[in-house]
UniProtKB/TrEMBL annotation:
NCBIfam families: salvage_TenA. This is Aminopyrimidine aminohydrolase. The lineage of its organism: Bacteria, Pseudomonadati, Pseudomonadota, Alphaproteobacteria, Rhodospirillales. Keywords: Hydrolase, Thiamine biosynthesis. Its EC number is 3.5.99.2. Belongs to the TenA family. The gene is tenA.
Amino acid sequence: MADATPAPLPDLATPGGLFDRLRAACRPSWESYVRHPFVRGLGDGTLPEASFRHYLVQDYLFLIHFARAYALAAYKADRLEDMRAASRSMAAILDLEMGLHVRYCAGWGLDEAAMAATPEATATLAYTRFVLERGMSGDLLDLHVALAPCIIGYAEIAAALMADPATVLDGNPYADWVRMYADPEYRAVAAASVALLDRLGAERGAEARFASLVRGFDAACRLEAGFWEMGWSLRD
């Protein structure tokens, strides 16, 4: 039985802001990511457990590179406040989020040492190295454009699932995952990412380089969809 469906949350995007425009320009890739069958399986509880466990292990490995991306963001920043923000984000991943992830995974019978020893899947390699490459070859805006689908997309996914009448929370083994990313604290993180992207776009000439930013954002969305597909393909 599904829990009572809450009213849809307001869109995180600022109309006309850079994130809003990038998402609109890449709508097919964005939709294939945020509405992937893996996501629907999380919402209604039908996702095979083997698919979810595989995702959890690869997400652990992904977080390591996500922390590296924020270290790169601190290096690429030219404002002290952006350096401090990147440093806080890296510390939050290394000192808090990874510990929470490990404890969550333990409930699924996954050991940290075993996860750390697992080879990175092709989808993990593709997305994490793409993000780092965009940061190394481009500037801070390119890096945050590549990171945005992950940070903001998870908040949109969770909000959509919470508002979907087809979502089942009572008895759903993935309900805690949905609630975690629907939590106001995580939504605030995603909103801050939107604001940062919009500000960097204004400061770093997004209008003149919009076509290049669209290519980066679209690629990141497709790689995120590939990350879901990695686990979804194991269902058979």
